[in-house]
Amino acid sequence: ERVPAGHPRLFLRPEDLPVLRELARGREKGRFDSLRAEAERLLGREPTPEPVRMGSARDKNDEEAVRHWWPNREQTEKACKEAETLAFVYLITGERKFGEAARRRVLRLASWNPDGPTNFRLNCEAAKPMLYRLPRAYDWAWDTFSPADRASIQKAVERRVRDAWESGEVGRGVGHLNAPYNSHGNRVWHKIGEAGVAFLGEIPEAETWLDYAVNKFHACYPVWSDDDGGWHEGVSYWSGYMGKAVWWLQVAQSALRIDGFKKPFFAQVGDYPLYIAPPGSPNAGFGDLSHRPPSGGVGAFMEYHLRAGGGRPENDRAGYWRWWTEAWKMNGADGILGFLYHANLPPLPAAKPPMDLPPSKVFRGIGVASLHTTLLDSADDVHFLFKSSPFGSQSHGHNAQNSFQLNAYGESLLPACVYRDLHGSKFHYEWAHSTLAQNAVLIDGQGQIKHSAAATGRIADHRFAPECDYVSGEAATAYGKLAKRALRHAVFVKPDLIVLCDDLATPEPASFQFMLHGLAEFSVDAANARLGLELPKAGLTAQYLSPVPLEFRQWDGFPMSMSRGAQFPNQWHVEAATKEKRDEIQMITVLVPHRAGKPAPWTAERLESGSSVGARVRRGGETVTVAFRKSGVAGEASLGELAFDAPFALERTRSAAPPP
After folding, report:
1. Given 5, 117, 328, 483, which residue has the most CB atoms within 10 angstroms?
2. Regions of the chain with pLDDT less than 70
3. Cβ distance 475 to 488 under 8 Å?
4. Is 210 in the same domain as 243?
């Protein structure tokens, strides 16, 4: 009843056309003229042809198929966008030359072989654009098609959607709805939904497609988070999926009058990148492909959130998000969506620096804690990022539980390994997914369960204050039978001191290996259990305060070659291993980052009592004592003269200045 009987239906309704046409001649003329100029260029060009070589990433060892896998997707996307542009310009102008060109391209796309290089089972990436971009062009140029044309297009779209429908990504609808934790299934449903809107009343199955999309959105989207706006798969995949989810938000609003912003997640959606990758960050945290800063394309879909959601009473964050996109010099949307945003949506909210936001935040739904000294500029920030996730290590969020990443002053000092050459390759599954590749702990040389929803952790506690932040994670489940207890506590004493306590217990005596990784070679002072690292913008000194002797080994590189000739920055790996086996240990690690060339001398000593363990760090006339209550201790704990009834305690004292 809500979907218009006529066309257009996707992104706009028939009754919207008079206003949009007027805006295209007036206020938004410059923006629309760019679209028209692109359509004019397309009139003089041959359509992008159908891919001819069979490409697929199913067999990682078939180099020829892998070589054509992603290019075929790009070629299909290009061909579909050409049809979209011509159809939309025709819709606004009514000029037959654009309509006829759109018609020819849509019919050509419909003639592509569904069992050829764009077959869904063979290459879902090349097949997906046909699910929604072809329906868009059809919808916008609808009145140019004859009944015979429509029958041909309907047949092609029905087959394309049927292939997706029967795939493991959708499982005929109920398969995905009952088991929604797969990656691709969370970006194909709304594409099927767009086809359902465009062909409702024309293809009998279209009503089922649309019903599936609406149920998916309401019942289990997004699945990789809770209401706090995090994304288990990481910022790189957050941006990829949010960039597509805004299409559904617009289609659902225009065709179905469904207000997607009533989902609390979307009122927090921009907090995640703001905290994980503040301006100038050298990387984007955990998850596949997050070794690089956020993509500039984030600005395009964030523009929709800023305009459409920014003025709503439940969203008081949009000003911060706009500041973030501008600080990263991200551009807003262009093309068709850019025109529609400026034509239909409210103005952008004023940018607001996050000076009044707390600098640290826990995304409890994904088990990620992001601790900062400042959100304003990574050049002045020390950023400790910690993970202990209830989602386990499944999908693209594979990093080990209780692992961490350390950035300082715009430099990646202790990175998470999030490199990926090809999903599922030997390098990806055997190295990048391993605990060994992360800043994490091994037990008897063994890591956590890899790429599994069962390898869970949890943020056990967190307490933030201006002077220091505290977070702890419990990850015993992720180790399977290796661990009875796997607690990692972290105290971040502002602005630049981090003290870790790994509280570990095993069923049988075991050795423990504490891993750190860097982008340059570490200096290793084994006698004093100290490491040093110097990079162009920042450096680090680390010291282990161990109850037992340690032995160190360092190596660089990766144990296997990468697929597709992929190359990533080299990494050095340091293992600090206990020389004797124990069934319980509390390891203290002190991390002190510094600006390049400006290390400050400091000393640290281990402190321990029956109820607590900790460190005393002396530097620059200040003494900092950090204490952690031992597991199993109830009530008050003490460490020397420091008494506390909490998971941790901090004491800072300064030496008296000498008399003048």
Report:
1. 117
2. 656-660
3. yes
4. no
